[in-house]
Every structure is written in structure tokens, then in C-alpha cells.
Design a protein that fits this description.
71 residues; mainly alpha
Length: 71
């Protein structure tokens, strides 16, 4: 996942890295988890907790990658 984010973050800024990380987390991570939770018929609160973890984690990862590319 880190290598994919590094390829997607073409601009070398922390803000852009954060935006890409959050977008990938919400667009890919959240969607994959939503599909599983609908199939398993789990509550929306449980999905929000787990999807939030993925989104925040990828946002932090994108921020770090953007900072390294800026240096």
C-alpha cells in the first residue's frame, strides 16, 4: 500500500500526501469494508469504526510519504 501511495503522490507536499491518503482510504478501503459488512449484515457503527481506522491510517501514511518526498 505504501508503494502505491508513493506512486500516486506525484507532488512533493505534505498536504497533497494527506489528500491522496484520505482519498485512497475512503475510496478503496472504505468501499471494500462496506462490501464485507453488508454481506455479513453488521451494524453501520462497527463499519464506521473500522473504516475510520483505515482512512486515518492511510491519511497518516500519505502525509509521511509526502513529507519524505518534499525533503
Amino acid at each position: 500500500i505504501g508503494l502505491t501511495l508513493a506512486k500516486l503522490i506525484s507532488e512533493s507536499s505534505v498536504e497533497y500526501g494527506l489528500k491522496v491518503g484520505l482519498g485512497v482510504g475512503a475510496g478503496i478501503g472504505g468501499a471494500i469494508l462496506a462490501q464485507n459488512y453488508v454481506y455479513e449484515q453488521k451494524s453501520i457503527k462497527f463499519w464506521l469504526i473500522n473504516a475510520g481506522y483505515v482512512i486515518i491510517g492511510l491519511g497518516v501514511m500519505g502525509t509521511i510519504i509526502g513529507a519524505f518526498q518534499a525533503a
